[in-house]
Task: inverse folding
């Protein structure tokens, strides 16, 4: 796969026309979400189809205390694309699973589904988030949620460190990325997930399968019972800032470089980061996050 790299300067150019764009794991409502970078990317393209492949809003970690303007701009940008006749398919993931109750809903160019099947260039493409084939999600849901909290705390701590590094003119670092690459169990988990998804895709007769969920952008051919299936993963908008684009008969992995601008605008200062870290560790409020999100939606709808 050709890796396409972009940055904020693209917004000065004409919009790029793309047939299909797939993004996942934005985790709006958390400090780790690079919403500003995603907004710049969405402002640079004109897709025929935009697939939001899960974990767009992090309901598990939702808190009324944190929903910055940059996160709301993503929602507005998506509705702006809808108004310009872009077909938007929303596939809920595990972090926004509350919205799965709306699967089957269609409203104009917006549809909510558990999966999407596309026929592109004579090949069958299967798009879904991927949590359904995650063993930790199937057998230890509470542990998966606890792990999500740990990951979010790691990202929050990483943000504090990068805030300081930026002030001293040093390059950013990624704790989570280093851990994933160095811990054998993490590498094994990713490989197991990819093999499981590829195997099921072959059983179902698909040529290409597209997932999110594990925050690991990928493009590889996996052989299952002497049959090849192409496995694609759209990555995330926390660390990798990646999207999948299909145009003119080929897939490309887009990697956004506009990280520094996001850091300057939406990261809290060091004092606020310390306060948030302390509260998250003491409160453990993730258990009530979904109900908090639903109550907020209900309250907003009654205004």
Result:
């Amino acid at each position: 796969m050709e890796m396409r790299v972009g940055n904020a300067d693209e917004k000065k150019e004409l919009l790029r026309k793309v047939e299909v764009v797939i993004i996942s794991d934005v985790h709006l409502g958390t400090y780790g979400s690079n919403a500003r970078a995603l907004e710049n990317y969405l402002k640079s393209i004109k897709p025929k189809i935009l697939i939001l492949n899960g974990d767009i809003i992090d309901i598990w970690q939702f808190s009324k205390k944190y929903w910055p303007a940059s996160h709301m701009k993503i929602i507005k940008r998506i509705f702006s694309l809808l108004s310009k006749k872009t077909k938007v398919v929303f596939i809920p993931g595990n972090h926004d699973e509350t919205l799965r109750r709306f699967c089957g809903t269609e409203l104009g160019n917006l549809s909510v589904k558990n999966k999407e099947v596309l026929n592109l260039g004579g090949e069958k493409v299967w798009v879904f988030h991927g949590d359904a084939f995650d063993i930790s999600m199937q057998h230890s849901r509470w542990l998966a949620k606890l792990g999500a909290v740990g990951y979010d705390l790691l990202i929050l701590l990483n943000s504090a460190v990068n805030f300081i590094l930026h002030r001293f003119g040093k390059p950013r670092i990624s704790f989570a990325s280093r851990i994933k690459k160095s811990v054998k169990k993490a590498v094994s988990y990713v490989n197991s997930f990819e093999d499981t998804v590829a195997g099921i895709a072959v059983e179902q007769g698909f040529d290409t399968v597209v997932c999110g969920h594990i925050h690991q952008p990928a493009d590889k051919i996996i052989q299952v019972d002497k049959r090849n299936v192409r496995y694609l993963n759209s990555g995330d908008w926390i660390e990798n800032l990646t999207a999948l684009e299909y145009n003119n008969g080929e897939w490309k992995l887009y990697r956004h470089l506009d990280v520094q601008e996001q850091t300057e605008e939406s990261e809290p200062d060091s004092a606020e980061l310390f306060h948030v870290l302390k509260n998250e560790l003491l409160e453990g409020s993730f258990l009530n996050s979904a109900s908090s999100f639903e109550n907020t939606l209900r309250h907003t709808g009654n205004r």
Remarks:
- Residues 142 and 287 are 9 Å apart (CA to CA).
